[in-house]
C-alpha cells in the first residue's frame, strides 16, 4: 500500500511538473521518485513467483561432502537409517484409514502442527507420497518437517504397500450375478502386495486429498501434494486430473513426454506377458528394486510407461504452483524432463537443481535438509 | 460380380448366420478378475491358420447378449469375434474386497486365505472397462488360429468411447470401429473442472467411509459413477491416436442420445490416419429400425476386413 501511495504522489508531482505547475516542494519530486523506484524494485521481488534458493548455495560445500562420502552413497535405494527422525516438539501424529475405489482401505499417518485444533482455525494440508517399492515409513520425516513448519501433513501408503490393504482376487469361480450389486460370502482368496500401478496411485492421492478436505480443522482450499521419485511423477499426473490441488512439490521425478505419435510401444517380452496374464491370470515378475527388495509384475513397468505426465501439462490449471527438485547427477531420471515440462507450463513451475547428488542421496543428510526446506517454503508460500 | 455374390451371401446368411459360425464360452482375466466372453469362429476356422479377430464391447449397463448378433455377423464375414462382459457385469466376476482386514507383510507378495469377502457388481467405471477391452485383445492374441498382429476392437454406445481411448493408449490396436459412440464432446474443456458442491461432498464421503457405495440404476447414476464419468474424457485421447490406426465411426441419423456432430463426427475429424463416418439412415441410437443393425454391422465388418 505504501508503494501505491508513493506512486500516486510521484505521478501527481510529475503531472504538476509537466503541466508547468510549480511543485510546492521541489525536493519532494526527487524524494517520491526515489521512493517509487525503490517500491517498484521491492514490489517486483515480493511478487516473484519463485522461492529463494540460497539454502542450496549455502549448503553447496556440505552437499559436495555428502556426495563424496563413501558412507553416504545410496546406489541401490535408501537405507533404514535414512528413514529415522525425531518428532519435532509440539507435533502430534494420528494413524488414519481412508478409502479408495469404493471401499479399499488405505493407510495414512497425520502429522499435526503445534497449536493445531480441529475447532479453531483453518489449516493448510499436504499429502506426502512415496516412490516405487518404498513405503510411508521412509518419508514420514518429510511429513514431520512440514508439520514443524506449520502444515498438516499426511504420509500415505498406496494400495498394496505398507499398511494399506492388499489387492484381492478369488481363487474360486465367482458365482455372483447382476441380481444384486453387493454380495457377502466366505471365499478362498489370493492377496497380492506391491502391485505397482500409477493409475491407482493417482486415485490414492486423490482419495487422500478428499480425506483431508473432510477433516475438521483443515482448509479444503489450501491443499498441497508432495511426491518423490515415481511419486513425483504421480503428483504431476494428479494435477492434470484434479483441480483441487493448489501447490505441488515433485522431487527427483521423471516427467516424461509421450512419443511423437500414438501409444507407447510394447516390447515382445511385455506383449507375451500380457497374453499369458489375460489367459491364465498369472504373469511374470521382475525385481521391483530400490528400498524394499520385493518383486513387481513385469506388466507394471509397461503399464506405467503409458503415463507421460510431461505430455499433458496443458491440462494443469494455470493457477497451480509447481516446484521440481532435481538431483544434479540423478542416475534414474533424464535431466531434461522437469525443465521441459516447466517451460511448457503457462503458470508457475520452478525448477531447483541440488548439485552433486545422485537419486537416493536426496533423502538423507544435508540433501534432506535442503529438499525438505525448499518443499516447506513452497507450500508455505502458496498455501497461504 | 463380387458385389452381387456378397449381396447374395448376405441375403442368405442373415437369418442363418449361426449355421456356419461356431461359438463357445471363454474366460479371460482382466487385472485378476475372471471375465466372460463369447467367442465366435468363422466357417472353416483352423487353429493353425492366422485369422483376423475383433473384440466387441457393450454399451452403458449392457452385457454380452446385447452385442451377440454383431459378433455372429462378423464371424459370418470371416472374422474371429469375441463379445465380452465387462468386469462386474453379466457372467464376469465382480470387484472383490476383504470384508475383514488381513495384514500381510510386503515381503510376502502372494498369500492365500479363506476370508469373508464383499463382491461388488454393476459398477460403471470407464477406465476399468477400457482395460477389460485391452485385456480381451491380449487374450485373442494368444488364441490359436488368430493372427496376433491383426486384432481390432468394436464398441457401441459407451463402448464406442472406450474404443477411442483404447486405440490411443494401446499400441496393439490398429483398427477400430466406434458405433453410436459417447465421446465427451469436442467443446468440453480440456482441463478438469471443479466438481459441483453436492458431488464434491459425495467424493469426500467416499474417501472417509467404509460403507459400500450405491450402485447405478437405469433411472440414474450413483455418486461413484458420476465421479468416474466426470473424470472420463475420451475426446482428450482423440488426437493421440497414431496415424497408422484406422477408425470408423458408425452413427445413427436420428440419434437422440448423443449429438453426432460434437461426438463421432468431431472425433473423426481429429484423426490423423484412415477414418470415416458411416451414417445409418433413418436409425435412432439403438439401431433397432429395420435394416439398421445389418447396415451398421456390415459397415464395421467391411472396415475390419479392409484394414486388418
| Number of E-state strands of chain B | 10
Unreliable sequence segments of chain B: 1-16
Order of helices and strands of chain A: HHHHHEEEHEEEHEHEHEEHEHEH
CATH architecture type of the largest domain in chain A: 3-Layer(aba) Sandwich
CATH class of the largest domain in chain A: Alpha Beta
What is the CATH topology classification name of the largest domain in chain B?
Answer: Rossmann fold
Shape of chain B: globular
Mean pLDDT of chain B: 92
Biggest β-sheet of chain B, characterized?
Answer: 8 strands, mixed
Specify Rg of chain A, calculated over alpha carbons: 25 Å
Given helix and strand content, the structural type of chain B is: alpha/beta
The fraction of residues assigned to DSSP E strands of chain B is 15-25%
Largest interface: A-B, 76 and 80 residues
Count of helices of chain B?
9
3D shape of chain A: globular
What is the first-to-last residue Cα distance of chain A?
19 Å
Instruction: Give me the side-by-side strand order of the main sheet of chain B.
Output: 1-2-4-3-7-8-9-10
Q: SS-based structural class of chain A?
A: alpha/beta
Amino acid at each position: 500500500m505504501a508503494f501505491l501511495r508513493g506512486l500516486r504522489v510521484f505521478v501527481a508531482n510529475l503531472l504538476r511538473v509537466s503541466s508547468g505547475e510549480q511543485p510546492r516542494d521541489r525536493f519532494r519530486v526527487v524524494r517520491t521518485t526515489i521512493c517509487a523506484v525503490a517500491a517498484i524494485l521491492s514490489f517486483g521481488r515480493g511478487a516473484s513467483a519463485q522461492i529463494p534458493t540460497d539454502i542450496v548455495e549455502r549448503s553447496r560445500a556440505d552437499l559436495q561432502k555428502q556426495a563424496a562420502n563413501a558412507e553416504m552413497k545410496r546406489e541401490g535405494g535408501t537405507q533404514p537409517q535414512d528413514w529415522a527422525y525425531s518428532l519435532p516438539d509440539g507435533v502430534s501424529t494420528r494413524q488414519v484409514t481412508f478409502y479408495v475405489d469404493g471401499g479399499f482401505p488405505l493407510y495414512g499417518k497425520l502429522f499435526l502442527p503445534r497449536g493445531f485444533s480441529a475447532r479453531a482455525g483453518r489449516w493448510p494440508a499436504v499429502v506426502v507420497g512415496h516412490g516405487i517399492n518404498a513405503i510411508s515409513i521412509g518419508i514420514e520425516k518429510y511429513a514431520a518437517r512440514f508439520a514443524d513448519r506449520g502444515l498438516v501433513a499426511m504420509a500415505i501408503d498406496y494400495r498394496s504397500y505398507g499398511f494399506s490393504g492388499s489387492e484381492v482376487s478369488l481363487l474360486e469361480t465367482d458365482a455372483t450375478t447382476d441380481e444384486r450389486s453387493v454380495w457377502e460370502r466366505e471365499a478362498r482368496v489370493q492377496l497380492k502386495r506391491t502391485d505397482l500401478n500409477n493409475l491407482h496411485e493417482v486415485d490414492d492421492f486423490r482419495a487422500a486429498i478428499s480425506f483431508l478436505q473432510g477433516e475438521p480443522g483443515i482448509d479444503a482450499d489450501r491443499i498441497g501434494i508432495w511426491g518423490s521419485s515415481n511419486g513425483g511423477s504421480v503428483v504431476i499426473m494428479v494435477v492434470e486430473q484434479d483441480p483441487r490441488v493448489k501447490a505441488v512439490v515433485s522431487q527427483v521425478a521423471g516427467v516424461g513426454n509421450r512419443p511423437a505419435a500414438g501409444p507407447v510401444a510394447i516390447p515382445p517380452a511385455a506383449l507375451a506377458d500380457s497374453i499369458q496374464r489375460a489367459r491364465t491370470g498369472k504373469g511374470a515378475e521382475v525385481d521391483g528394486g530400490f528400498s524394499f527388495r520385493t518383486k513387481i509384475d513385469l506388466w507394471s513397468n509397461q503399464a506405467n510407461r503409458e503415463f507421460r505426465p510431461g505430455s499433458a501439462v496443458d491440462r494443469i490449471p494455470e493457477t497451480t504452483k509447481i516446484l521440481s527438485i532435481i538431483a544434479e547427477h540423478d542416475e534414474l531420471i533424464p535431466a531434461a524432463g522437469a525443465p521441459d515440462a516447466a517451460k511448457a507450463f503457462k503458470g508457475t513451475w520452478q525448477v531447483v537443481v541440488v548439485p552433486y547428488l545422485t537419486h537416493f542421496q536426496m533423502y538423507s543428510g544435508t540433501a534432506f535438509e535442503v529438499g525438505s526446506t525448499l518443499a516447506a517454503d513452497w507450500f508455505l508460500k502458496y498455501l497461504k | 460380380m463380387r458385389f452381387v455374390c456378397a449381396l447374395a451371401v448376405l441375403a442368405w446368411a442373415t437369418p442363418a448366420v449361426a449355421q456356419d459360425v461356431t461359438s463357445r464360452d471363454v474366460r479371460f482375466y482382466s487385472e485378476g478378475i475372471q471375465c466372460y466372453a463369447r467367442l465366435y469362429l468363422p466357417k472353416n476356422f483352423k487353429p493353425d491358420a492366422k485369422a483376423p479377430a475383433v473384440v466387441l464391447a457393450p454399451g452403458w449397463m449392457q452385457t454380452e447378449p446385447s452385442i451377440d448378433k454383431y459378433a455372429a455377423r462378423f464371424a459370418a464375414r470371416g472374422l474371429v469375434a469375441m463379445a465380452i462382459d465387462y468386469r462386474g457385469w453379466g457372467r464376469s466376476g465382480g470387484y472383490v474386497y476383504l470384508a475383514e482386514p488381513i495384514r500381510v507383510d510386503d515381503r510376502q507378495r502372494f498369500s492365500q486365505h479363506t476370508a469373508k469377502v464383499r463382491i461388488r457388481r454393476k459398477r460403471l467405471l470407464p477406465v476399468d472397462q477400457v482395460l477389460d477391452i485391452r485385456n480381451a485383445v491380449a487374450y485373442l492374441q494368444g488364441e490359436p488360429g488368430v493372427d496376433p498382429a491383426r486384432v481390432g476392437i468394436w464398441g457401441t454406445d459407451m463402448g464406442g468411447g472406450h474404443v477411442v481411448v483404447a486405440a490411443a493408449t494401446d499400441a496393439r490396436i490398429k483398427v477400430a470401429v466406434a458405433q453410436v459412440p459417447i465421446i465427451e464432446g469436442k467443446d468440453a474443456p480440456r482441463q478438469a473442472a471443479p466438481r459441483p458442491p453436492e458431488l464434491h461432498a459425495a467424493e469426500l464421503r467416499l474417501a472417509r467411509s467404509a460403507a459400500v457405495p450405491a450402485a447405478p440404476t437405469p433411472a440414474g447414476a450413483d455418486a461413484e459413477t458420476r465421479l468416474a464419468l466426470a473424470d472420463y474424457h475420451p475426446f482428450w485421447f482423440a488426437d493421440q491416436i497414431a496415424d497408422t490406426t484406422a477408425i470408423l465411426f458408425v452413427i445413427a441419423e436420428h440419434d437422440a442420445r448423443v449429438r453426432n456432430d460434437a461426438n463421432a463426427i468431431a472425433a473423426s475429424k481429429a484423426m490423423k490416419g484412415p477414418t470415416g463416418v458411416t451414417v445409418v439412415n433413418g436409425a435412432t441410437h439403438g439401431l433397432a429400425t429395420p435394416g439398421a443393425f445389418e447396415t451398421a454391422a456390415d459397415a464395421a465388418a467391411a472396415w475390419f476386413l479392409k484394414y486388418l
